[in-house]
Amino acid sequence: MRLTTKGRYAVTAMLDLALHGEKGPISLSDIAQRQDISLSYLEQLFSKLRQAELVSSVRGPGGGYRLARGSDDIHVAEIIDAVNESVDATNCGRGSGCASGEKCLTHHLWSDLSDQIHVFLSGISLSGLVARADVQQVAQRQHEKELAAQDIEQKIEIIGGP
Amino acid sequence: MRLTTKGRYAVTAMLDLALHGEKGPISLSDIAQRQDISLSYLEQLFSKLRQAELVSSVRGPGGGYRLARGSDDIHVAEIIDAVNESVDATNCGRGSGCASGEKCLTHHLWSDLSDQIHVFLSGISLSGLVARADVQQVAQRQHEKELAAQDIEQKIEIIGGP
DNA sequence: AAATACCCGACTGTTTTAGTTGGTTATATA
DNA sequence: TATATAACCAACTAAAACAGTCGGGTATTT
């Protein structure tokens, strides 16, 4: 179990899907704009999320991604594991001949704690996060901002588009 | 809150202190041998652990480090935070003008979850880890290994030391 | 005086992050 | 059927973090 900003990006993007994915697939460029993440980086992350069968994709215009399962059935631990690509658990099993548990003792000390963290994050679902009041507040603000941006775009179009 | 092998090293080393620190200060070279971590790297980590006032040091021969507080009063979250040097929380407050919470919304989404993880790890103390049966088993094995190593050293000395 | 062991800064090689570039392929729509 | 959209894909880059090394210092015990 590893926790970096990469996992944060993935969780944030999935949370965005859970918040906006009701009416159909969401394009990555939408998520990129709303959550301020580079589009190409999102593509890399979603490639992994798709391999892990956490999302499904629809190609072509109007396409995008949607959650592969219900938001109550997707948990934070899965998302983080999907983008962090397992990483041989610890640096054991290499040169030190750690087979049969003879050496490599530090490994056990940590992996035990790591398991606990994993169990903890497996208990937090996307719907659980969505239900939180503060998250809804943020989503609301993002929605208002989006509308404002669309409004500006329309006005530009009226003044004289390409 | 970040979770990498760096934090694992720090927690493991602190656990070693909790296990062996009863009879006096423990030298870093002892920990380096037992836990198979580079001595110089440990020095860097303990520099930070000392700044965070999680350990205190004794210089000179017979010196080393000891826990600054009781092992029931030192928690995993503190240790990890100490070596990961905070990292401006998230990448906000830089170019995007995230003051007053207007922008930088993704930040809130994540930091909320991050807080939960933090609270969770704040509930796990060193003494809590020490009390675990499997940890004691590992410590016992390490102790036996240590005795065996000392035995070999003695024999070498008898045969003809420097 | 000598050995121990903390303390400190600078340096190195490797891996991971984060992002870029430049495409190809599938598909809805006009 | 042409076009725009948006997923897909691979290779590349800059910057940071990780893990460790090196060469010194300083305090303290024996």
Automatic annotation (TrEMBL), chains A, B:
Keywords: DNA-binding. Pfam families: Rrf2. Transmembrane segments: none annotated. The keyword DNA-binding applies. SUPFAM superfamilies: Winged helix' DNA-binding domain (SSF46785). NCBIfam families: rrf2_super (TIGR00738). This is Fe-S cluster assembly transcriptional regulator IscR. It comes from Biformimicrobium ophioploci. The gene is iscR.
